Amino acid sequence: MGLNSSLIAERFGVGAAELERWLGEALSRGGDYADLYFEYVETTSLSLDESIVKSATQGVTLGVGVRVIAGEKTGYAYSDDLSSEKIVKAARTAACIAAGPAKIIETGLEEKSGRDLYAVPVPAAETSLAERVALIVRADEVARAEDPRVFQVQASFGDSIKHILVATSDGRLAWDRQPMARLNVMALARGGDGRVEHGYQGGGGRVGLDHFVLQDLAAKFAKEAVRQALVQLDAVEAPAGEMTVVLGPGWPGILLHEAVGHGLEADFNRKKVSAFSGRVGQQVASSLCTVVDNGAIAGRRGSVNVDDEGTPTRENVLIENGVLRGYLQDHLSSLLLRSEVTGNGRRESYQHIPMPRMTNTYMLPGESDPEEVIRSVKKGLYCATFGGGQVDITSGNFVFSATESYLIEDGKLGRPVRGASLIGNGPEALKYVSMVGNDLKLDEGVGICGKEGQSVPVGVGIPTVKIDRITVGGQA
Amino acid sequence: MTPSNAHEEIAAQLIALARERGASGAEATVSAGDEFEAQVRLGEVETLKEAGSRAAGIRLLFGRKVGSAYSSDLSIDGLRRMVNSATELAEISTEDPDAGLPDPGDLGSLAGDLELYSESVEKMEAEEKIAMARAAERAALDFDPRIDNSEGGSFGSYTGWRAFANSHGFLGSYRSSSCSLSVVPVVSEDGKRERDYWYSSARRTDKLECAEYVGRTAAERVLRRLGARKAPTQKVPVVFEPRVARSLIGHLFSAATGEAVYRKASYLADKLGEQIAAPRVTIIDDGTLPGLFGTSPFDDEGVPSRRTVVVEDGVLASYLLNSYTARKLGLKTTGNASRGVTGNASTGHGNLYLQPGDSTPGQIVSSVKNGLYVTELLGSGVNIVNGDYSRGAAGVWIENGEPAWPVHEITISGNLRRMFEQIEAVGNDLEFRGSAACPTLLIGEMTVSGH
After folding, report:
1. Chain B residues touching A158 at Cβ < 8 A
2. CA nearest B185 in A: which residue?
3. For chain B, how many helices (H) and strands (E)?
4. Does the beta-carbon distance from A399 to B68 stay under 8 Å?
5. Cα B97 to Cα B83: distance, rounded to the nearest angstrom
6. Domain B119-163+170-223 belongs to what architecture?
């Protein structure tokens, strides 16, 4: 597969010779390393509210980012104009970080061809608009028909196709076509007492429209959003204080993302500002816990063939039987820590400097039957669904917000409770994991991770897990 | 309408192309900007970033059907493609009886200098910006030997243009600038680490707090977190310092936007004219205050910015609306339309603030026998549909009116409706560090969950 199979190379006349020349400009004042990141993105978003398709938007963005690394220093510039003149200007701006004689690129660029984790024959972006509109119309109809208490439905479908091309001064040349699609449904229901509650379900991944149509996900998500809203109509105040919590499988894996994932990103550890700094080899979770980050699962939202520095993604073990094994690396951190790259160098767009980021983060399944996990709890809380979370990586304190939970009394699920945040400390919380279910599930594909102002799509997953002690922020 | 700069020219060109294509209405936005960022860590430059970019978007109406598109390709072919794409999208949308543009009579722009742009930001040399970041970090590191690490000091700046045109003949643009200085020191003691930050931001360089002050303030903040522990679970009064109090008026804003209200996805829906907060609470949105971050001559659909009293003496006085949500609710726009460069406008606030009271922050803390002073909030546990509030928190425990010991790994919970009703004291320390500002607040009772 030659460079001309890259849309960027073909459409903007970018060849190996030009790439080498621009990299030469980037290193014209010295420096250890330079890279070029080209990006071309087409997006479509459609949204429905009050059964009306009120908004339909398409857009195109393109640009190139040039980075120069000199020791621990990074120079960065970008351009949304792909003319050679503007790229040279950006390269010279980024070059200002270094101060020395020009560095000559020793190796030629070597093309990396490879696998395709998302061999979507027809990306959603290339299907007819009418087919995509049909999905949100269906979601609306199903949700409204599901229960008379539903009075408001919002549905949206968004897709994008991103083409990237990365060339580095150490000879990597990689390109990729990254489809993405996502369907969201939100429903509002009103109870007899006038109380209003909402429910939400969304999902998708690096998939085509078929993924949604063949499984009728519009109907499935609509019913799930309605179910959650109706459950909330009956919810009582959540309890407050430390207690035993059982997390259901799937999206509650956001616990791992917040409690350990961010703290294991190599930039924080290189700078020794993470609660996990210097703890490789130490016990940071119960021996039942093995946590991995894997950017190479076919079709998942957090997956990419190569990261945004051109490194192939792979499975990385973060915690093995409770022992901290390693960090998530980007190119800069791997240079400074003399460690391998792990395929976790990601960025929001060409306007952003890459940094170590998660891909799909999950806990491997254990041996317990999920029902047995619940039966083992005399008094506690079962959390089925969560909203977002956040972590202070230095203290290690993290929160994540439960949006659907039930009291557990004498081993049985009881009444649903209102939304509440759970708070814990990263290197401590997973030490209280006392049971791990055999039912690992990955989320539906809705995760967006924010770090230092940059958002990237991610996935999470977890089997049913029992945590003997964690603080629940309810009011009862 | 005669374009007075290149950005207005592109906006006007888009409107002309839309007319050619037969659109019955059109709105065009152009945004262009240059950014600079320098990050210094442990005295050494770590990152330098410098670049510019621009983009434009169009929203077209064909009767009551709407389509939008955006692009960073602003060549004439790029503009044509954008208009074609939006036209195609309008065809698959549904007739929306309320879709439209603002009434021509509502359009306009504030006169006079709003002090949104200062040459000082562009004129300051990169070397000086780096030196300020370095000095701020140095001041934090030198403050106390226990501060032995840092996530760095940084200086960021931005200058840009925004132009807007619509098919009713509105054409306008404005230029703005901003700069900010921040530092994130890290302190260690007994194997425990904590971090905190302080920052200053302004539209002109001479309005920034000096580097030493920013560094020292960050240092004081991080030091007071040392030795933090959990608190017992209990119901207590909670004091919000200004840096976190402003998030509360942000939640109230979300609940008072036209979208949330007409969908009845807000605990404030149908509450106009009702008491929704303590009588001592008055909340104002003012997009006209010169030099501030929430100020603009017109909103993102060409309606002049203005001052709107949202809550007056505890009574919900106004929702915050754009022309669409105003039509949905049978009201007038409040000039709060907001969007990126394309799509239907949503709602944004100008300078949103809670009017200061008479108490000093010290007096408020003194009035609390046993309670929590919150300095940081974590997570997203706020539900504006039913008002439920539950977030992670850190701060200082108050005993007998005195700050006693640092606390962390707790949550605070309540319900926005009750929290606003139970505001028992409002500080006199209102200060704008962004487009939302709130003085110190005392909330009578919330649930603290700890151990």
Report:
1. none
2. A273
3. 10, 20
4. no
5. 23
6. 2-Layer Sandwich (3.30)
